[in-house]
Design goal:
Butyryl-CoA Dehydrogenase, subunit A, domain 3, Rna Polymerase Sigma Factor, Chain: A, single chain, mainly alpha
Amino acid sequence: MSDSASSEAVLLTRARNRDQEAFGTLVSRYETTLLNVLMPIVGERERARDLVQETILRAYENLHTYIDTHRFSTWFFRIGVNLAISLKRRMRVEGRILEEQANEPGAGLEPGHSPLETLAREEEARTVRLAVGRLPERYANVVRMRYVEGLSCQEIAQKLDTTPNTVSLVLFRAKQRLREELSSP
């Protein structure tokens, strides 16, 4: 076993015992490469950075599921790529749903969309707005700044006088709560 592999094995053992420093050392080896892998998928450096942070959080939360038959980097990158693919899918839906629509019936009609499709989109948007309104104020504000105003995590952090990592974490938790809110009957 090479020094690098044994060093990684030691770090993994420590990280599994919730040694945050060891985990930080482990993921810092792959952060830049992961950012470079995610950039072409999401097409925006700030979003890719957000995904790297979310990947780190997910990896830490799910480290107990990591199986030593694969390299840690493979597992770590798979989490990031899956998050990026999910984000691309959600961005298409959320972008459509969270856009501001006029309150007048028919104002949202677009060429190629039937009145029924427009009505369904307006209903989806209303449902999401109501769900965002039920979130704690901090979560709702961050969601609105990100998806309605289109601000990056860096810009939101500056507005809220906090760090981009904190904004990423709040956004991650807000989206979890939104998913729960929207999936409950």
